[in-house]
Design a protein that fits this description.
This protein is of the alpha/beta class. It has seven helices and twelve strands. It starts with a helix and ends in a 7-residue tail after the last helix. InterPro entries: Class_I_gatase-like, ThuA-like.
């Protein structure tokens, strides 16, 4: 019995140590410097070629824009909470009717019409269940999807599509999706949603203007969002934009107690991943960001998203 008690004690001590490590990573560091507070918590080796080196991209000749033009698929299926900017759930099939309530989908359709690329949209998982379907698209956009939004065939197809040189764009609650699929977390930049505070005004800092998604943006621009906190913290990516936490009236602390990321709180980044391209942003919560209703910074936000889509498609240089 003594060895059993000893084993139980060791197990309890290990559990306590792990909890202490996690809690320490989420607490502000001494002196208020939280830049490295949560970066390494839960970091995973995803076992794929990933990062900012174009050598990680695989061009298998699956796309011929000279013949087929450029086309994206917007996928907005929710298997959990649904953001207001998506409107009511859409019926099955491809390109079901949109109403004014479908603000985000409609905005992406408008961007395509204005900038010369075709847009299909769906919330029908069967439209994603084969690589052949997906290879019709230069990029697939996950628009505020939630929870387990893909079945097994769709997961397999998405992975084969990315490995075949496909483009991925994840917007806002794409970070609240497929929590238990490690490969998808890697597609998001080795990052995942942890929590957020209230929807509040803040200032976005443009990290670099070399990338097409940041070219032409001001060095600083005001916007209103939920400012996601992340665990794990993105790794092996190029940070494109950050939020200045000092400009948040309520601070960056989230509902589950995450203190924020200090001076390096990313909101958008890009990477090559497992043969494909991935551009993601945590921004896009407010309905007004997707409509003609005037709201501060919405023109910069949509310009940012447009550049992300065009680069993930391969129409513009990617992740510069």
């Amino acid at each position: 019995m003594a060895w059993r008690r000893s084993g139980a004690l060791v197990s309890a001590l290990l559990t306590a140590a792990l909890l202490l490590t996690a809690n320490s990573a989420l607490r502000p560091a001494a002196g208020g410097d939280r830049d490295n507070a949560a970066r390494n918590l839960g970091r995973v080796d995803y076992g794929v070629c990933r990062g900012t080196d174009p050598a990680c991209y695989h061009d298998w000749g699956n796309f011929d824009p000279a013949v087929d033009g450029y086309r994206i698929l917007v996928y907005s299926r929710t298997a959990g909470p649904r953001h207001a900017h998506l409107g009511p759930a859409l019926p099955t099939g491809l390109n079901p009717p949109l109403t004014p309530a479908h603000a985000a989908q409609s905005a992406l359709v408008r961007l395509g019409a204005e900038h010369g690329f075709a847009v299909d949209w769906t919330e029908d998982v069967t439209q994603l269940n084969s690589p052949g379907r997906l290879f019709r698209y230069n990029a697939v956009v996950f628009m505020s999807t939630t929870r387990d939004t893909l079945d097994d065939p769709a997961q397999t197809a998405l992975r084969q599509y990315i490995r075949g040189g496909g483009g991925f764009v994840g917007i806002h609650n794409a970070f609240g999706t497929e929590y238990n699929w490690e490969w998808y977390e890697g597609l998001l930049g080795g990052a995942n949603y942890y929590d957020h505070g209230r929807n509040q005004a803040g200032t976005v800092v443009t990290a670099s203007r070399r990338d097409v998604s940041t070219a032409g943006l001001p060095a600083r621009w005001d916007f209103t969002d939920e400012w996601y906190n992340l665990v794990p913290f993105p790794s092996e990516v190029r940070i494109l934009a950050r939020v200045d936490e000092a400009t948040l009236p309520d601070g960056a602390t989230g509902g589950s107690g995450h203190p924020g990321h200090g001076r390096n709180h990313p909101v958008s980044w890009c990477q090559y991943y497992d043969g494909g391209r991935s551009w993601v942003t945590t921004l896009g919560h407010a309905v007004e960001a997707w409509t003609d209703a005037p709201t501060t910074g919405d023109q910069y936000f949509l310009q940012h998203v447009l550049g992300g889509i065009e680069s993930a498609m391969g129409r513009e240089p990617f992740c510069r």
